[in-house]
Amino acid sequence: MIRRRILKASAGAVVFCLLLSGCSGTAAAGTDDLPTFTSMDQLVSAVDEHLGCDTDPVGDPVTPMNGDALPADQMLCLPHVQIDLYEDQAALDKALNLWSDTQQGPVPLVHGANWMVVDLTGVATGEPSAVDLEGFASEMDAEYETVAS
Q1: Helical axes 40-51 vs 133-140, angle rounded to 10°
Q2: Which helix (H) or strand (E) holds 140?
Q3: Whole-angstrom distance, CA of residue 83 vs CA of residue 74
Q4: Are residues 36 and 112 in contact, defined by beta-carbon separation less than 8 angstroms?
Q5: How far does CA 119 lie from the centroid of its chain?
Q6: Which candidate, 11, 9, 24, places its Cα nearest to that of 102?
Q7: How far apart are CA 50 and CA 65, in angstroms?
Q8: Is the pTM value of this prediction over 0.90?
Q9: Are 99 and 64 spatial neighbours (Cβ–Cβ below 8 Å)?
Q10: pLDDT tens digits for 119-132?
Q11: How many CB atoms lie within 10 A of CB 134?
């Protein structure tokens, strides 16, 4: 139990440090026709329908380290998969750029016009993720990207 908490704390620290380091990568969000959500409840319901979120995942979502890109709301869907809802497209674009600037390896994500689902399994565990974000993006008519690769 203690080892598990230490491993989770270490994984969280690694992910947190990701956002503090950066290079010059960019991610463009062409969000003209992408789906938008007006509430976290609607977004979580849609994500849960496709990905089957845990009822009480252990851990905390990672928050981008730029005050202009702070999500309006965020939560975990699965232990290393988080859901972020943004006030507007500008905040989402800034967050996508922050994710693109991480130097810890590929980070798969799906985004709409004002939201994203980020899979940090590979970063946190070093193992490939079993979450089908590409299929989820297709079902949602959203954009799938692998950033920071």
Answers
A1: 120
A2: helix 133-140
A3: 5
A4: yes
A5: 6
A6: 24
A7: 29
A8: no
A9: yes
A10: 999 999 999 999 99
A11: 12
